[in-house]
């Protein structure tokens, strides 16, 4: 089972950026936990982060026919990126949307996701654990 994990914009600043919202772990810390959980479940995982919408679209295109699942934290792109939504649909990956914070309890503009209705599910507000829960789900679903 192959899983693509995508982190969107500004997540490379985790640990320094608004730790009261996003926590003190760095992206490298979270990626290490993702890799450990994937190994525990015998999942092949590729992790990618970009601050650029087009780079995320290109990475999705690269995984057409190569991966089974997508775990994505689109970050700010969650709320408006039709390009990323269309790419997710085009490559046909089963998708789990993850957010560190609870987007539904924040500013109004953050409550809308253009990914949620095409995803298997959405996990938000549980910090880094959301990524691990997504991998647990993938292992149990297959």
From TrEMBL:
<feature type="binding site">
    <location>
        <begin position="100"/>
        <end position="101"/>
    </location>
    <ligand>
        <name>substrate</name>
    </ligand>
</feature>
<comment type="function">
    <text>Catalyzes a trans-dehydration via an enolate intermediate.</text>
</comment>
<keyword id="KW-0057">Aromatic amino acid biosynthesis</keyword>
<comment type="pathway">
    <text>Metabolic intermediate biosynthesis; chorismate biosynthesis; chorismate from D-erythrose 4-phosphate and phosphoenolpyruvate: step 3/7.</text>
</comment>
<keyword id="KW-0028">Amino-acid biosynthesis</keyword>
<dbReference type="GO" id="GO:0009073">
    <property type="term" value="P:aromatic amino acid family biosynthetic process"/>
</dbReference>
<comment type="similarity">
    <text>Belongs to the type-II 3-dehydroquinase family.</text>
</comment>
<dbReference type="GO" id="GO:0008652">
    <property type="term" value="P:amino acid biosynthetic process"/>
</dbReference>
<comment type="subunit">
    <text>Homododecamer.</text>
</comment>
<feature type="binding site">
    <location>
        <position position="86"/>
    </location>
    <ligand>
        <name>substrate</name>
    </ligand>
</feature>
<feature type="site" description="Transition state stabilizer">
    <location>
        <position position="17"/>
    </location>
</feature>
<dbReference type="InterPro" id="IPR036441">
    <property type="entry name" value="DHquinase_II_sf"/>
</dbReference>
<dbReference type="GO" id="GO:0003855">
    <property type="term" value="F:3-dehydroquinate dehydratase activity"/>
</dbReference>
<dbReference type="Pfam" id="PF01220">
    <property type="entry name" value="DHquinase_II"/>
</dbReference>
<dbReference type="InterPro" id="IPR001874">
    <property type="entry name" value="DHquinase_II"/>
</dbReference>
<feature type="binding site">
    <location>
        <position position="110"/>
    </location>
    <ligand>
        <name>substrate</name>
    </ligand>
</feature>
<dbReference type="GO" id="GO:0019631">
    <property type="term" value="P:quinate catabolic process"/>
</dbReference>
<dbReference type="InterPro" id="IPR018509">
    <property type="entry name" value="DHquinase_II_CS"/>
</dbReference>
<feature type="active site" description="Proton acceptor">
    <location>
        <position position="22"/>
    </location>
</feature>
<dbReference type="GO" id="GO:0009423">
    <property type="term" value="P:chorismate biosynthetic process"/>
</dbReference>
<protein>
    <recommendedName>
        <fullName>3-dehydroquinate dehydratase</fullName>
        <ecNumber>4.2.1.10</ecNumber>
    </recommendedName>
</protein>
<feature type="binding site">
    <location>
        <position position="79"/>
    </location>
    <ligand>
        <name>substrate</name>
    </ligand>
</feature>
<feature type="active site" description="Proton donor">
    <location>
        <position position="99"/>
    </location>
</feature>
<keyword id="KW-0456">Lyase</keyword>
<feature type="binding site">
    <location>
        <position position="73"/>
    </location>
    <ligand>
        <name>substrate</name>
    </ligand>
</feature>
């Amino acid at each position: 089972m192959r899983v693509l994990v995508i982190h969107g914009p500004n997540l490379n600043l985790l640990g320094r950026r608004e730790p009261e919202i996003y926590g003190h772990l760095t992206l490298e810390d979270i990626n290490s936990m993702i890799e450990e959980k994937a190994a525990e479940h015998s999942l092949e995982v590729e992790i990618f982060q970009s601050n650029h919408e087009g780079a995320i679209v290109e990475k999705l295109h690269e995984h057409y026919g190569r991966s089974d699942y997508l775990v994505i934290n689109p970050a700010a792109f969650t709320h408006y990126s039709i390009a990323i939504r269309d790419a997710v649909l085009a490559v046909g990956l089963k998708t789990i949307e993850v957010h560190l914070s609870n987007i539904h309890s924040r500013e109004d503009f953050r409550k809308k996701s253009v990914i949620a209705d095409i995803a298997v599910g959405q996990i938000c507000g549980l910090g880094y654990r959301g990524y691990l829960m997504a991998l647990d789900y993938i292992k149990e679903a297959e």
